[in-house]
Write a structure and sequence with these properties.
The protein is an alpha/beta fold. The chain is built from 15 helices and 15 strands. A hairpin with a 4-residue loop joins strand 13 and strand 14. Helix 6 packs parallel to helix 10.
Length: 412
């Protein structure tokens, strides 16, 4: 029976890790303590889980008193490195929500701690466990398109999901590392996993022209805005009991507003980005992220020596983000033949059922891992490195080689 503690008890941390650990994994693990900079929010873990979970007012004190086997880190992205390193130095293994961290300096500090302590680090890339993308991986691994030469990848966030990042702490690069790090790390990891390869060079361009200070009719937050009847981005989060308890009722502790205006001057992340990546084995990828699409989903084309694979997954907000309205895969071979695959449907909740599967892996383990779905520190580094290099490329208007930071190999 492993002892767990968790730092960070926001929406994702509470619902994806803390509460399920308490309710569903009693036979293999125990949540022995939680810490958050907002003690009111941390106390909600007990309310939502139905069991009394100790709330600590100091992270070091929690480590010292509990002596946990594993620390789950689900804080703001920019704080992951601090808690990961402290946990490893205290002799604990780490489960960290993606992205692992937000800058190259923080990444190097994590690598150093990993080398010094030898502790295990797992990064939660749930797309590896989504039934649709798992099947895509199986098709690519079968060799039907041969060796991969190039990837064209477009990810669309619609104006409900996409806008949410511009309301929250993610809207500032200092917190999230931008959508290139916070959101696109999922997508970069997916391609790295499909190709079984690692990036070496990155070039990128990005703009913010949809969100940010693009209109005069705005306020600090939705709940105090005089333009609620005319703004298509008005969101009444107070009407939902969960958000009322987790955020509005906790504002007096940390001053965090969950419903900030998407047209704020404070926003400095991009809403449209184009990225080019060169891989170690020679493949190249063109990637784009649009955070203001009329619909949600992805389109990916993978060109190989023996054919072409086209992946499409489209979601409509009205039908729920976890249920795709169009999931399909087509193969075009060199004989002029077209093969259409019947793809598995995801569950209605939890990223198509991927959250349940990744929790099983984290808390119960896997007897075998033929598709290499488990992601550790190296996979975490390779995904965020594309996003961090893209940020640097946009800032300095140049192509960025990862060897500038890691040499020929990151060493883990």
């Amino acid at each position: 029976m492993k002892k767990y503690v968790q730092v960070g008890t926001g929406h994702r941390g509470t619902n994806a890790f803390a509460v399920p650990l308490v309710k569903e994994y009693k036979d293999c693990g125990k949540l022995c303590g939680v810490y958050d900079i907002n003690p009111k929010r941390a106390a909600l873990v007990s309310e939502f889980s139905g069991e009394s979970i100790p709330v600590y007012d100091d992270f070091d004190k929690m480590l010292e008193e509990v002596k946990p086997d594993v620390v789950i880190v689900t804080t703001k992205d920019c704080e992951h490195d601090y808690y990961m390193i402290k946990a490893m130095e205290a002799g604990c293994d780490v489960i960290v929500e993606k992205p692992m961290t937000t800058t190259f300096d923080k990444t190097l500090a994590i690598i150093d701690a990993k080398k010094r302590t030898g502790r295990d680090v797992k990064v939660t890339f749930n797309l590896r466990f989504h039934p649709f993308y798992k099947r895509c991986k199986e098709i690519i691994s079968s060799g039907v398109i041969g060796d991969v030469l190039s990837v064209h990848f477009e990810w669309m966030l619609d104006t409900e999901h996409g806008a949410s990042y511009f309301r929250r702490w993610h809207r500032e690069i200092k917190n999230s590392g931008s959508l290139m790090v916070h959101k696109s790390t999922h997508h970069f990891d997916l391609v790295n996993w499909f190709l079984e390869d690692e990036p070496v060079e990155v070039n990128a361009f990005g703009t913010t022209r949809f969100y940010g200070p693009t209109r005069e009719e705005r306020a600090e937050r939705c709940s105090d805005c005089p333009h609620t009847k005319t703004c298509e981005f008005y969101e009444d989060l107070k009407s939902e009991t969960f958000y009322q308890k987790m955020y509005f009722d906790c504002e007096d502790q940390d001053g965090y507003y969950r419903d900030k205006c998407v047209f704020s001057d404070e926003i400095d992340i991009q809403d449209s980005v184009s990225v080019n990546v060169k891989y170690r084995k020679g493949a190249v990828m063109s990637y784009s992220l649009t955070a203001h699409s009329p619909f949600e989903g992805c389109k990916m084309c993978i060109n190989g020596t023996d054919g072409r694979m086209e992946i499409t997954s489209i979601h409509l907000a009205t039908q729920g983000y976890d249920v795709a309205t169009s999931d399909n895969v087509k193969i075009f071979n060199r004989k002029g033949e077209q093969i259409v695959y019947n793809m598995p449907k995801g569950q209605v909740i939890g990223h198509g059922g991927a959250d349940n599967k990744i929790r099983d892996m984290l808390f119960r383990g896997m007897d075998s891992d033929p598709l290499n779905q488990k992601a550790g520190i190296r996979e975490g580094i390779m995904s965020i490195s594309i996003g961090m290099a893209a940020n640097l490329s946009m800032k300095e208007n140049r192509r960025v080689a990862l060897s500038e930071f890691y040499g020929d190999d990151c060493g883990v």
